Amino acid sequence: CPLQMVYDYLAAMGYEDPLRIQREAANSDLSCMIRFYKRPVNADQQDRTLLKGVFNVRKGKTQLHKWAERQVILCGTCLIVASVKDSLTGKMHILPLVGGKVEEVKRRQHCLMFSSAGPQAQTYFVNFDTLAEYQRWHRQASKVVSQTISLVDLSCYSLEEVPEYLFYSQDITHLNLRHNFMTLEGPGGLLNLPRFFQLKSLNLSHNRLGVFPESVCDILTLTELNLSCNGLHTVPPRIGNLQSLQTFSLDGNHLSSLPEELGSLTQLCSLGLSFNNFPHIPSVLERLSALDRLAMAGNRVGTLELSCLARMNHLKSIDLRLNGLRCVRSETLDPVKQLTHLDVRDNCLCTLDLSSACCLESLQCQRNQLGALTLSGFTLRTLHASKNRLNTVNVYPVPNQLTHMDLSRNLLEYLPDWVCDSRKIEVLDVSHNLLSELPTRLLSSLSLRKLLAGNNRLQSLPDLIDHVPLEALDLQHNKLGKLPESLFYKALNLKYLNVSANALESIPPSSQSEESLSTLQELYLTRNNLNENCAALLVGHQNLRVLHMAYNQLLSFPASKLSKLELLEELNLSGNKLKSIPSTVSSCKRLHSLIAHSNHISVFPEVLNLPEIKLVDVSCNELTEILLPDSLPATLQELDLTCNHSLILEHKTLNLFRYEYTHTQISQRDSLGTSTLWDHGYAEMSGQRNKLCVSVLAVDHFGDSVEAAYGIFDGDRNEEVPRLLQCTMGDVLSEELQHSIVDSVYMSNTFLTSHRKLGMAGQKLGASALLCYIHHEPSEPGSYFCLTVANVGTCQAVLCRDRQPLPLSKVFSLEHCAEEMERVKNTKAIITEDNKVSGVTCCSRLLGCSYLSPSVIPKPWARTEPLCPQDEFLILGNRALFQTVSYQEAVNTVQAVRDPRAAAKKLCTLAQSYGCRDNVGAVVVALHIGEDSCTCEPPLTTSTGGPEVRGTVPAAMSAPAPISVPPMGDPATPSSSSGIASEFNSETSASEVGSEAGSTASDEHTSNSAARPERRCSLHPTAVTINNTLFQRQPSCTTFSSNQSDNGLDSDDEVPLEGVISNGSKLEVEVDIHCYYPNGKMRRQNSVVVSTTNGCLLAVCGREISDLKKSPSTSSLFGKKLSNGSVVVPEDSHNLIEVALEAPKKKSGYFAAPAQQDPEDQLVVPPSLEQEVREQLRGQSPMVPGPPLPSTPPSVRDTDWDHSQTPVPGLPAASMQQEVYDTAL
């Protein structure tokens, strides 16, 4: 039943409530994930039928045959001529064209001669009616005759039968019917496949056959047969008929045994049995003498008998990954001489002794539980044994053929002597061990080219005795106080050096003389104790392309030395004490990235004239002014000036790029009280990728209560899905909060609904997602806050509690989660050798990639953690961040930085300096939840209306902050290294705008379940009741620097705007933004758009959104792409800077006078309440008393995380706290 199929599909996705499943089944978006076909695709739509029509045809070259009208079809590589006009019934004349000829007949207009190849060649003349038809047939037929292999690809066509036309193409040798619904019976069923008597290759994988199609055993010409993923339980004995079979794929079925007749296939050299149910290696394989490679990954082989392998003396390569293998043993002392490659990754081995495999060349045993490993070294070439518990590795004799060895992430305290004795070793990875020293002979090896020894306990390195061929050296995260003095002039081939996170106070010179032969190209010195004297020693490395010296003790960078680094492409000097960047940086003509955030820089560096500059990040500095050229360079993708609190920009500068002051605040958070409870900052960096595939959701004021929502989305290599999630997921969470108060339910449904809303984009693309929601416990409204976290994929959340990391998420990758690996194996998905589902993704749960269902599902893992005063901050990061930065280091890093935004930037900078080349994203949420933090209490009285609507995103936005600056000609340029492009302000990112856009939909209906009790306190002001109508006052305070204003008046004609308190260069605007009605529903009033940029105030009051769309100055704000590529749907919250930039200009003194009240700048009362409000206002004072603004809780735990609001100078405190000006009057 189709309805039952849809029900089962949605239940497998993660929906649990039957009523919710019924509602989801009726949603039209579901067609992007599951679809029913009434009939298979018409055969005429297949690629095989190239051309057809009714033309005059004559057979043979003689005049004995007459011209007759016949239907002619060019199908595949054959010309088919019907014996009856306009009909395919009767005899069909088939002319194979491969190797034949197609020639023009000059004696007859628009006529072609088709001839087959061979001694018994036949000829047909076809006369076309028009020149266009003649040319089209000539062109297509010429391509056909030039083909040498007849390949038919009908995969993914939802076919039930083979098109009948194909059976007339007898030259077909390769037929691909993968991903269809092929049946046995019928004219085009699998029973008729033997009609292809020249067929050599047949692919029937992913057809859900259920039974083995025995008819294929009659195609005796087959050399390749693929029946993977068909749910097969047995293989028939007739398989022995295929004596020419060389490749046989049976992966992803339910096989547990093979017939003895399979042993008669003497030419079979490749057999795929992966992801079946074999409990042991089938004995019939002993007879397959030509078989040299056996693929049995993902079966149930618990014990491997080496004596059994000895009898299969033809097998050279064996793949036994993911078998649950617990023991490898040998009952006899006979050597296993033929085995050269063995793969036992991802099993449960505790010990492994392969000393009897004397010819073993390659061993892969990663991700086991090995404590000891014993190998034969006679022919050993590569050894991969990372992520085990090894404390020793025994290889005898010395492996003189060994070239590559990976022993990372083990428990090694020393390196065995045989490692230094190996003569040909080129790559050695011993990172993440317990090594305290490296042997002198190792660094003096004449073969070693790459040494990775980071994350150990090294305190010193031995001196280099002689010149060595070392090209890459990674020593990060050790305890090194200095490097060998001769490092650079003894390792002349050294191109990559990473010594970040050590205790270095100096670096060795590049040479012993003034002339340097250094070839160093990448140098990473982040997080050491280096000063400016060390920077002077870099001048000898004139081939340097990448230099990272972030978070050291640099007070300056020598100007004369920087000018010598002419090939420099990327320079990172963040986190030092620099006051300026030398002007000689303009000598670095190839520089494309300058990252110098978190310094004391006061003058903008001279880099915008460089021809290849793409990224300039001077955020978190002390810039006061910026001098820009008349036009920004075309290559510039991002310019980050955020967190420069003294920076003042002229309007000319604003015309060059979009920018919002970090110190300008539209302080909605004061009225909600969240400014004292949490604050956030985030950073995104593209690294060495050419696009940014990480997006962030950050809403400090989520819903109509004291709540917040944060999220991070990582698309790996696609940017579309993360940005869609960024714009929609907050709104989906808001809607799901209407239907349930159970955290696991609304979080799970939020992910599942977001998965559905991805639409067509979510079919082939996907993203990891993490969402955090800070709220009160719904069952205890007066309780402390709770943090609910849900995630899919590899994005993670870590809470700092008592200065220790507390992981809150679960990593859904095949390598990290054994339960998910078993679940994916049970779906019979193929896990490739790089541990990816169907070769696509390493994640078992994602939003998107619906075509991989049920192997990859969107159901999240959810967890709720009560927050306490010991919780300092929350860190959200993607896979790349936590692969390079441990939980503890991330916590220590954030603790050392006061500002959340600077902390997020530091995390991303450290990840890149530690070797990460992918996109990096980090969100830091500072928590200030003290023991006496005020919480809202349930109301004493209940309104006559319905339950309070929950979860809507407020219309007013909070404090503006960083905008990444692409060139004005390309507003959709993706973010690059610093990744600030997706944020509109420090409180609300671009994703919030997207989440707000659809939130009004949830305003129009109430919750179906029990409504949450209303909570009001000083952090959440109560509404003012007028004649049973609730008007909630939410003052919005705007503070900015302004000496000029443009409203068409001179400064002498200044008339103060009613409702606006003006005091010199400071303004405060207080606005009504919400209107509550007695029935419990909330409706948005006609919007008040307040924009502040460089002193420009634009208030649009009482105007419909449709009017704003028509306005030339605001039409570009609706449905516009964000600077990071996100598309924001139309709404009444706009990018404030864009409104200011498009304001009308005046030649004489732009912004020459303060704003004056415009007749339209009035708050319009809804028509249905106009008369009632007028009657009420006649007897009332025009000043409506409002609630006092909240004060800072007295028990804020950590003053370092406080960001108190600066009061407006010259404005009486009583006026700010006691009165709300009524702009409606």
TrEMBL record:
Catalytic activity, as annotated: O-phospho-L-threonyl-[protein] + H2O = L-threonyl-[protein] + phosphate
GO cellular component: cytoplasm; membrane; nucleus
Start-end of Polar residues biased regions: 973-1001, 1036-1048, 1215-1225
PROSITE patterns xref list: LRR, PPM_2
Enzyme class: hydrolase
Gene Ontology molecular function terms on file: metal ion binding; protein serine/threonine phosphatase activity
SUPFAM superfamilies xrefs: L domain-like, PH domain-like, PP2C-like
Residues covered by the PPM-type phosphatase domain: 679-927
Keyword Ribosomal protein: no
Cofactor: Mn(2+)
Cell compartment(s), UniProt: Cytoplasm; Membrane; Nucleus
Region (Disordered) location: 937-1019, 1036-1055, 1171-1225
Start-end of Pro residues biased regions: 1184-1193
Basic and acidic residues composition bias: residue spans: 1002-1017
Listed EC numbers: 3.1.3.16
Pfam families found in the cross-reference section: LRR_1, LRR_8, PP2C
CDD domains attached to this UniProt entry: PH_PHLPP-like, PP2Cc
Membrane topology, as annotated: Peripheral membrane protein
Keywords (A to Z) from UniProt: Cytoplasm, Hydrolase, Leucine-rich repeat, Manganese, Membrane, Metal-binding, Nucleus, Phosphoprotein, Protein phosphatase, Repeat
InterPro entries reported for this sequence: Leu-rich_rpt, Leu-rich_rpt_typical-subtyp, LRR_dom_sf, LRR_domain-containing, PPM-type-like_dom_sf, PPM-type_phosphatase-like_dom
Primary role: Protein phosphatase involved in regulation of Akt and PKC signaling. Mediates dephosphorylation in the C-terminal domain hydrophobic motif of members of the AGC Ser/Thr protein kinase family; specifically acts on 'Ser-473' of AKT1, 'Ser-660' of PRKCB isoform beta-II and 'Ser-657' of PRKCA. Akt regulates the balance between cell survival and apoptosis through a cascade that primarily alters the function of transcription factors that regulate pro- and antiapoptotic genes. Dephosphorylation of 'Ser-473' of Akt triggers apoptosis and decreases cell proliferation.
Name used for this protein in its record: PH domain leucine-rich repeat-containing protein phosphatase 2
Organism: Denticeps clupeoides (denticle herring)
